[in-house]
Amino acid sequence: MRLPLDERFAPPSVMGVVNVTPDSFSDGGANLDPDAAAETARRMVADGAAIVDVGGESTRPGSDGVSLDEELRRVVPVLEAVGGELPVSIDTSKAEVARRALALGAELVNDVTALRAEPDLAGVVAEAGAYLCLMHMLGTPRTMQAHPRYDDVAGEVAAFLEERLSFAVAAGVPEERICLDPGIGFGKTVEQNFELVRRLDVLLALGRPVVIGFSRKSSLGRIAGDPQATTGPLAASLAAAVTAYERGATILRVHDVPETVQALAVAKAVLA
Ligand code: HH2
Predict the structure, then answer these.
(1) Is 59 touching ligand 1 by the criterion CB < 6 Å?
(2) Is residue 21 in contact with ligand 1, taking CB distance under 6 Å?
(3) What pTM, to 2 d.p., does this model score?
(4) What is the C-alpha to C-alpha distance for residues 253 and 248, in angstroms, rounded to an integer?
(5) Is the pLDDT at 141 greater than 90, yes or no?
(6) Is residue 253 in contact with ligand 1, taking CB distance under 6 Å?
(7) Residue 217 CA: which ligand 1 atom is closest?
(8) Which of 15, 57, 59 to mutate to test the pocket of ligand 1 (most atoms within 8 A of CB)?
(9) Contact indicator for 51, 44 with CB cutoff of 8 Å
(10) CA 119, CA 117: separation in Å to the nearest integer?
(11) What is the Å distance from ligand 1's center to 182 Cα?
């Protein structure tokens, strides 16, 4: 039996990003080789990550998806190498990829479409007794940054995630195994991304642990002074992780694990 998600992941928990892709926005290509990806994952856990998020499909703005075969070809060798050995999450929207990953030892499914791309994914998670992360995205990666509009971004994101949470629970995933993510950069302006963290209480009111993935995202580079930035620098990523934790986030999804673990240890000591 699995622990409730809030017992398995004490705040602040770090989720290390391992993109097994040629084209991810900040680390594309670095972990395309399965041995390199497995080594990155091992180092992240040794550096203090509570879990590593393995993904075979980039969702950067403007991207198209990858085929099932290609996604499996990328992630299965990595999961075979580390699945039983390390705490692993699979970043996928495809039920078949999740099924294979869970069979190879993954414990969490991170779906950026919140079960909209393949609703059957809910049953796969339920059957495996796995954890689930439901993320908000406006539109698709191809369209999401074309004039995102909200009347009340925090309220609309929370309403969306509340509905997706009900859907997942109705499909058999216990609520205590689910966490929610406002989807920083997925159909939001720079200001909207910061507002979502500032007003995290609106999302926390749903009663589920919250994941924030602000690491290296372009809004950080833009607020730090480069209006054309497509990524954000490390120092800005650390500030985002610390402030999101202060606002109540439980899991911080990041690329730079040791630095984030150190920064969060200080934040935790101050807040304790
Ligand atoms: N961001 C990315 C991918 N998956 N999952 C969650 N839950 N939250 C996020 O903020 C999130 C996510 C995008 O970052 P990255 O994986 O580094 O890039 P790419 O999608 O280009 O591979």
Answers:
(1) yes
(2) yes
(3) 0.97
(4) 14
(5) no
(6) yes
(7) 14
(8) 59
(9) no
(10) 6
(11) 12
**Pocket probe mutation, ligand 1, options 71, 91, 200, max atoms within 8 Å of Cβ:** 91
- Two tokens, residue 189: 């302006």
Q: Which two tokens stand for residue 66?
A: 């990858």
Give the pLDDT band (50/70/90) at residue 27: confident
Write down the mean pLDDT value for the chain: 96
Q: Is 83 in the pocket of ligand 1 (CB under 6 A)?
A: no
Helix/strand/coil (H/E/C) assignment for every residue in 29-73: CCCCCHHHHHHHHHHHHHCCCCEEEEECCCCCCCCCCCCHHHHHH
232 has a pLDDT exceeding 80:
yes
The two tokens of residue 138 are: 């406006």
CATH architecture of 5-271: Alpha-Beta Barrel (3.20)
Enzyme catalytic residues: 217, 253
Give tens-digit pLDDT for 30-81: 999 999 999 999 999 999 999 999 999 999 888 889 999 999 999 999 999 9
